[in-house]
């Protein structure tokens, strides 16, 4: 347990060193939310405007969280590889599962922080109002749903250089966010693109996190989302085994 605490301490020391990146990862979606929600209600009744702003707040909280899965997590892993820290840990008595768990706890902390900041912004600056049960449901669904994307970040970390990692992460992050309906409803897309959108994990994440306001919970989307996470995790495991066998 002492070793695990030391690993956690190291992760949160890295948080202090990378504070600017953390602020950007949360600040950019908050800025997008404030900008687009400012004219989202043009031509709509107050009731419908409130629904659009609420839903946009929740999807922007998801968008903010995913940045940590696609950037913070894989680049933290890559830094450990380049500095030989991971190699040293593999040849030490430290169980590797503790190393990965410490990394994941750090990302979950970032998720909680991002969701809280976006929710507070929506409530204070855009007067988003919900029963406490819906706030909590939305928070937990965002936390759980975004966790399914951590294996995607693990896959990104297997690219050989940071330039390629950055390019792949940016393409995946932005394209999945837009295609999945996190920036705008997919009903605004052409029919052929809507079909493609429904295949993305971010579309199913959006369905899950907006479930508290639907007539029924998006069980199918939750299963698909978990399935994506498991498939990515299996691929990452196989790549890891192949790398260590060389």
From TrEMBL:
A Gene Ontology cellular-component term: ATP-binding cassette (ABC) transporter complex
Location(s) in or outside the cell: Membrane
Keyword Nucleotide-binding on entry: no
TM regions (residue ranges): 21-41, 53-76, 97-119, 139-159, 171-193, 213-239
GO terms assigned for molecular function: ABC-type transporter activity
Membrane topology summary: Multi-pass membrane protein
InterPro entries: ABC2_TM, ABC_2_transport, Nod_factor_ABC_transporter
Origin superkingdom: Bacteria
Domain ABC-2 type transporter transmembrane: 53-238
Keyword annotations from UniProtKB, A to Z: Membrane, Transmembrane, Transmembrane helix
Protein name in UniProt: ABC-2 family transporter protein
Organism: Streptococcus agalactiae
Lineage: Bacteria, Bacillati, Bacillota, Bacilli, Lactobacillales
């Amino acid at each position: 347990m002492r070793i695990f605490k030391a690993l956690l301490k190291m992760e949160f020391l890295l948080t202090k060193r990378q504070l600017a990146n953390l602020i950007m990862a949360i600040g950019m979606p908050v800025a997008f939310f404030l900008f687009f929600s400012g004219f989202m209600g043009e031509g709509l009744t107050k009731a419908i405007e409130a629904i659009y702003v609420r839903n946009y707040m929740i999807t922007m909280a998801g968008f903010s969280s995913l940045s940590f899965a696609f950037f913070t997590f894989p680049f933290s892993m890559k830094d450990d590889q380049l500095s030989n820290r991971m190699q040293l840990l593999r040849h030490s008595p430290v169980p590797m599962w503790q190393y990965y768990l410490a990394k994941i706890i750090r990302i979950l902390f970032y998720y909680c922080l991002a969701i809280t900041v976006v929710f507070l912004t929506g409530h204070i600056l855009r007067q988003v109002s919900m029963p406490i049960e819906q706030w909590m449901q939305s928070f937990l669904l965002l936390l759980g749903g975004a966790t399914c994307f951590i294996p995607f970040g693990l896959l990104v970390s297997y690219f050989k250089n940071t330039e390629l990692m950055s390019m792949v992460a940016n393409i995946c992050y932005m394209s999945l966010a837009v295609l999945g309906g996190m920036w705008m409803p997919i009903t605004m897309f052409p029919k052929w693109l809507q079909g493609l959108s429904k295949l993305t994990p971010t579309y199913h994440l959006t369905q899950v996190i907006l479930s508290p306001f639907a007539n029924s919970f998006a069980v199918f989307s939750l299963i698909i989302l978990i399935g994506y996470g498991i498939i990515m995790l299996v691929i990452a495991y196989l790549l890891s085994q192949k790398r260590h066998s060389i």
